């Protein structure tokens, strides 16, 4: 059995289409989706509609779906802050039947293929917890700081992630406490995979289909998982060419760009640079708000926009 493993689409319908097309051209008809289908890209409703039409799939929710769920039944007249505009925009632009479907998706999936147990959750921390786990495995910005402005190739990135795994104290030991099986997750927007030596334990993060942050520009990651009849496991990391500049121009023509401008502009920086920016901006916005004595959270429109205006030319700051 051969599966395309896809995660973190984040409303990027052109990227989803490109990855699905690539997988189908390779003869793949089975799909695994590891969460985060909305927020950040301007086509969330279209992404959900596409996912619903895929018959042969295993799918779980991510953390972004929770933001939409928390808005159900809330008074929209109070949605006046700046920080959560992207969530409000998504809620208003996803059809009810698609939102109902999205929120019906389970958080976890456990199943077997050809004798191999497979476990799916959106975040690696749901499987293993290591107090000194390197931030390369989370959305922390650590990888952007590590690579800086370097032009990164998939081969270089793959080796760097392998070294980071083996050099992180306690990580291998924590993984080794897992039962044999294949563990699939997303969230970090960084593609990587690992097999524990002398064990039948496999970890797979396919990266982010819609918002890659592993510093490899103009490509979309996903992973092909093959489980042979005899139980042999093959993991192949894929990159699909993609014109980010063209996609960004499409974003600028949408109502998301005008109604959730600050968030969308930060995301555009991430798309064009394939590097984390959001965590750095959120930290800067917090510092800015505190510097002017603003304790209101979520951030007001005024604070949110003024913080962005000051941060805009700084980019990510390690």
In short:
Helix content is 39%, strand content 17%. The protein is an alpha/beta fold.
**Main sheet properties:** 5 strands, mixed
Calculate the mean pLDDT score and round it: 94
Number of helices: 13
- Name the helicity range: 25-40%
Rg from C-alpha positions?
19 Å
Question: Could you give me the name of the CATH homologous superfamily?
Answer: Metallo-dependent phosphatases
Main attributes of the structure:
318 residues; Purple Acid Phosphatase, chain A, domain 2; 13 helices
Give your account of this protein's structure:
It is a single chain. The protein is of the alpha/beta class and 318 residues long. The chain has one domain: Purple Acid Phosphatase, chain A, domain 2, CATH 3.60.21.10. It is built from 13 helices and ten strands. The strands form two sheets. The chain has a five-stranded mixed sheet. A five-stranded mixed sheet has the order 4-5-6-8-7. A hairpin with a 5-residue loop joins strand 7 and strand 8. Helix 2 crosses helix 5 and helix 9 packs antiparallel against helix 11. The longest helix has 14 residues. The radius of gyration is 19 Å and the shape is globular. The N and C termini lie far apart (43 Å).
């Amino acid at each position: 059995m051969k599966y395309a493993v896809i995660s973190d689409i984040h409303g990027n319908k052109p990227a989803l289409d490109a990855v699905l097309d690539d997988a189908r051209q390779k003869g793949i008809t089975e799909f695994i989706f590891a969460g985060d289908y909305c927020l950040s890209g301007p086509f969330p409703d279209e992404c959900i509609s596409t996912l619903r039409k895929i018959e042969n799939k295993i799918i779980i929710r991510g953390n972004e779906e929770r933001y939409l769920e928390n808005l159900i039944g809330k008074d929209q007249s109070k949605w006046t802050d700046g920080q959560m505009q992207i969530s409000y925009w998504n809620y208003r632009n996803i059809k009810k039947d698609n939102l109902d479907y999205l929120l019906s998706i389970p958080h976890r999936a456990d199943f077997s293929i050809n004798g191999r147990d497979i476990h799916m959750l959106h975040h690696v921390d749901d499987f293993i917890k290591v107090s000194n786990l390197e931030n390369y495995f989370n959305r922390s910005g650590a990888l952007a700081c590590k690579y800086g402005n370097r032009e990164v190739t998939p081969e270089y990135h793959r080796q760097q992630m392998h070294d980071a795994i083996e050099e992180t104290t306690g990580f291998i030991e924590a993984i080794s406490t897992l039962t044999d099986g294949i563990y699939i997750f997303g969230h970090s927007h960084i593609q990587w995979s690992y097999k524990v030596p002398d064990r039948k334990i496999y970890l797979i993060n396919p990266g982010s289909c819609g918002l890659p942050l592993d510093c490899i520009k103009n490509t979309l990651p996903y992973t092909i998982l093959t489980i042979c009849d005899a139980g042999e496991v093959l993991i192949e990391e894929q990159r699909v060419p993609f014109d980010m500049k063209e996609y960004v121009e499409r974003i600028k023509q949408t109502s998301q760009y005008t109604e959730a401008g600050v968030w969308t502009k930060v995301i555009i920086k991430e798309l064009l640079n394939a590097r984390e920016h959001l965590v750095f901006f959120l930290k800067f916005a917090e510092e800015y708000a505190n510097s002017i004595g603003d304790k209101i959270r979520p951030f007001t429109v005024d604070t949110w926009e003024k913080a962005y205006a000051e941060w805009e030319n700084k980019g990510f700051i390690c």
